[in-house]
Amino acid sequence: MREAEEAGATYLHIDVMDGVFVPSITFGMPIIKSLRPHTKLVFDVHLMILDPIRYIDRFIDLGAEVLTFHEEVAREPRELTALIDKIHARGKKAGMAIKPETDISVFKPFLHELEQFLVMTVRPGYGGQAYIPETTEKIWQTRKMLDAAGIDADIQVDGGITDETLPIVLEAGANVIVAGSALFKGDIADNCRRFLAKMNES
Ligand code: ZN
């Protein structure tokens, strides 16, 4: 984490998985709490969990600054509105994520409400997966929809981002890039610097 920060990374993307919404279990609050004093990186918490509204306050108390929940967890749209309102009431940024099979039209009612749109570029649940090429079109369409509405929000991509796929997602309009294996396997500082240089070029 420190190596990434020193190399210029700005966010720490934290995948919280509950073993229900996705098959894997990662980590929860104690780990996040223990990391917080050791870095100034923005804690970008990706909640791959059911019932995220139950945990929003607690994650914010522990230092989360961007909170992204999945559209698919909601039984009805007003649950999504309630989540966004709760995050904003605490002065934090709200993000909504979609799985690769979810249509981007679900973003539409929330274009003006969200700071971040997360287009998953693999099926959520495991690290080290290959980028799903069909998701490029979803990034394009999301950027187009935002541009048409005159909104300059973040589009985040998550999953399978490598030296090969990075230029593709940047060109499609993503500007917040999550990378796990590509950065943390090998020389972390070198990998981060190379990624950041490519992002600055675009
Ligand atoms: Zn994630």
Characterization of the model:
There is one protein chain. The chain is built from eight helices and seven strands. 35% of the residues lie in helices and 19% in strands. It has a seven-stranded parallel beta sheet. It starts with a helix and ends with a helix. It is of the alpha/beta class.
In short:
The protein is an alpha/beta fold and 202 residues long. The protein has helices spanning 2-6, 29-35, 56-61, 77-89, 135-148, 166-172, 181-184, 188-201, and strands spanning 11-17, 42-48, 66-70, 93-98, 116-120, 154-158, 176-178. It has a single domain (2-201), classed as TIM Barrel (Alpha-Beta Barrel), CATH 3.20.20.
Strand order of the largest sheet: 1-2-3-4-5-6-7
Mean pLDDT: 97
Q: Which sheet architecture does the biggest sheet show?
A: 7 strands, parallel
CATH superfamily: Aldolase class I
Number of domains: 1
Outline type: globular
CATH class: Alpha Beta
- By DSSP, the count of extended strands is 7
**What bound compounds does this protein have?**
zinc ion
The CATH topology = TIM Barrel
Summed up, the helix count is 8
Q: What is the CA-CA span between the terminal residues?
A: 25 Å
Low-confidence parts, pLDDT < 50 over ≥5 residues? Answer: none
Into which percent range does the helicity of residues fall? 25-40%
